[in-house]
Each structure stands twice: as structure tokens, then as C-alpha cells.
Amino acid sequence: MRHVSTVAWRELRSLFASPVAYGVTSLFAVVAGLFFVLYLLDFDARIIQLEQFQAAEQLERTNLSDHLISPFYDTMISVLLFLVPGITMGLYAAEKTNGTQELLLTSPLTIWDVVLGKFAAAAAFVAILVAMVAAFPALLFAYGDPGPELGKALGGLLGVLLVGWTYVAIGAFASSLTRSQVLSFLIAFVVLIALALLPVIAGLGMVGSAPAVAEVFRWLATGEHVQPLLGGLVDTSDLVYFAVVIGSFLLLTKASVESVRWR
Hints:
Layout: H1 4-16, H2 19-52, H3 56-61, H4 64-88, H5 93-98, H6 101-105, H7 111-143, H8 150-176, H9 181-203, H10 211-220, H11 222-230, H12 236-258
């Protein structure tokens, strides 16, 4: 495990040595800024409309945390669903294409060093993106009157980070399955979409004859666990979910990478 930081630093350097990282961060910043402005304008229009109709009760319930920051975080999670598979698709697939995977696996590094190091590098990159997301609500704390609730803002930000790291674990596993980066992207994207659609499948009654299966589907869905965090509710059960999913996909990635030695 002592070589994890070495592998992570190597991956981060290689990532930022190419224009991909700068392109992704620039695109993400523009998209995040655009959505934040749109939600800000929508919130302002809502306030003006409620004041015109003198809806004092609704006006009192309307706040920056629930009607601006939370929807903004939710949208950024959707954006990450498209971006993270692109970040992780080359973690292992590129090694196979370049013929460097054999060198990596025959080095003094353990499989866990490689798996955790590559995950840490991609997770750090996602953390940079989440920090960019945090910069926009920070403006509301500086200039909002009244400002948003700190607990809800931080809870939602934690939710975005955990979802991003979950996407990284899934993307890393997808990349370990193939030498094609395009196929890796597609596998990760399909898995993430499937996780997002599980509550819909359960709700449509497709597993209505098996209530226990429907409950499992709902539990597996990422959205079911991130929504409380977006509302500022940090529940241990939700944190356990993210830990279990991330840990499970890291174990699957280790098994996939290790299987190369037996081929």
C-alpha cells in the first residue's frame, strides 16, 4: 500500500500532461457557470413573481438552499455522469493499448497499489471539479441577503463528491475490462444510466411481484442516497451505501486486473 501515492501522482501527471484534463476542466467550468446563472435568474424571477402576487407564505418558504443550490448540485451530478467515464476510460485501457500494463504488473507494486493509486488520481481530479462547483454557491454566501444555509450547502457538496467518486470506481472497473477506451466509456456510461433508472424500473411495477427485489433496486440507485444529502441531511446509511459501492467496484477492478496474470 505504500506505493499508492506514487501511482496516483504518476497518473495525475500523465493526465495533466495532455490537453484532455485542461479541456475537461474548462468545459466543466463553463457548463457549471452557465447552469448557475440560469438557476440564479430563475430564482430571481420566482421571487419577483411571488412578490407581485403577494404570496407571503410561499415567499417565506422560498430560499437559496432549496430552490437554487440544491437543483444546481443535482444538475452538476448529471454533468459528471457524462464527464467521469471520459476521465476514467484510459486508466487501464490506455496501459493495455500502449503495452505498459505488463511492465506495471511485473514491477514491485502490488495489485492494490495500482488499483488504489489509479482510483486516487481520478478521485483527486473529480475533487478539483467539485471544488469548482463549490465556488459558485460561495458567491451566494458573500453577496446573498439572506445567504443560504451552510449545512445544506456543505451536505449537498458532499453528495456531489461522493457520487463523483462512485462514478470513478465504476469507470475504473469498466476500463479494466477492455483495451478500447471507447468501449470503456460506453460500459461505464451504461452502468451509470442503469443505476439511475433502477427506481424507475421499480416504480413501474416491472418487479411488482417481488417487493424485495424492488427494494433492492431502490437501494442500489445512487439518486436515492444523494437526494437526502442535497437536502442537507447526512445519514450514516447513505454514507455506508457509497462506501459499499465504491469498495465493491474497487474489488471487482482488482480481480479484473489480477486476472491478466493468469491469461
